[in-house]
Amino acid sequence: MKFSAFTTRxxxxxxxxxxxSEQVFQRILERERGRSERNGGSFSxxxxxxxxxxxxxxxxxxxxxxxxxxxxxxxxxWLSEDHIGVIMPDTALEGAAEFGRDIKNNLLPKNAFxxxxxxxxxxxxxxxxxxxxxTASSDKxxxxxxxxxxxxxxxxxxxxxxxxxxxTLALILLCPVFLIVAIFIKSVSPGPVFFKQxxxxxxxxxxxxxxxxxxxxxxxxxxxxxxxxRLIQNKESWQKLDDxxxxxxxxxxxxxxxxxxxxxxxxFNVIRGEMSLIGPRPCIAYEARQFCLWxxxxxxxHPGLTGLWQVSGKNRTTFEEMMRLDIHYGQKRSFIxxxxxxxxxxxxxxxxxxxxxxxxxxxxxKSIN
Length: 369
Hints:
With about 375 residues, the protein is an alpha+beta fold. It is built from 13 helices and ten strands. About 30% of the residues are buried.
């Protein structure tokens, strides 16, 4: 059926305004996610995809059918311009699937083509449901990023542009520093110059993070793992293991760490899009396994070379405080905030080095006395 341009505009406006806008629905989804994390509840999200034009009357029929069937506690809105979502609190996968089957089989025209995805949270197990909504069961462990297409915002163009330009310029200007640090590491410790380790990044995707090596090659990684797990479980301040005398740090390795020079190779991770210049510290896999549900929001944002935690006390904060700072940054990131963090980074580095030198001087004085 063809419509005049005027009729098309009227239908389009009517359909768009008949349910919650994409921005409002996103806020409702975030609120429901937060409620589940606080109260230990769960909810299902029915994602309805359609291929008809947005002014098609059959779409209005679908919306009216959904409005008639949802509960007062449910929410209906736009996920995107070709996706409609229904948030169903305290509803398991089977209940959401039954709701979808009822809408499709009993309330829509037979020739209407709609596809359904069902997401449950906190299980986060997406089940693609085609046509007749035959749900597929799986014993696979739930993935923490199942709702990431709706809850994780892509990196803004301005931020990605600054990452590429900034990291490229830094690599060019800091070439002499790279060379000096590489020669120094080779001269004080046998083994490779670089150290690579799997880290967990945006939407829980693993990537290889590069650093200058500051530990001896025979350092036992299990020692650091036990140390980190203890700090998390006991809610202690995020003190690094390299402050201990038997930490395995190479000569002057602490200076490289406190100054951040050991992290310069991560500029390559920034160019590759695995990291950003500003963002949460990239965490190790065994750290991520310790995260409770609300802390997994940290993966909604790309990790960075420096971030809000690094300029807000860093090792003096507890693990939980670090998580809250990282999540707050991800929810409130902006060009102005990134600029402030960037310029706060250098005083924070100088303060770390000064504190390290003072601590070493006091320790030496005590040993003499």
